[in-house]
Amino acid sequence: MWAWFHKLSSPKYYYEWAGKWLPWLAGITVILMVVGLYWGLVVAPTDYQQGESYRIIYIHVPSAWMSMFVYVVMAVAGFVALVWKTKISEIVVSECAVIGAMFTALALITGMLWGKPTWGTYWTWDARLTSELILLFLYFGVIALYSSIEDKRVAAKAASMLAVVGVVNIPIIHFSVTWWNSLHQPNMDIISENPSMDPSMLWPLLVMATAFKIYFVWLLFIRIRNEIISRERTTNWVRKLIAES
Amino acid sequence: MDGKWMFVWGSYGVAFVAMVFSVVFASRRKKKLAREIEESLEE
Question: A128: domain range?
Answer without folding.
Answer: 20-43+53-186+200-244
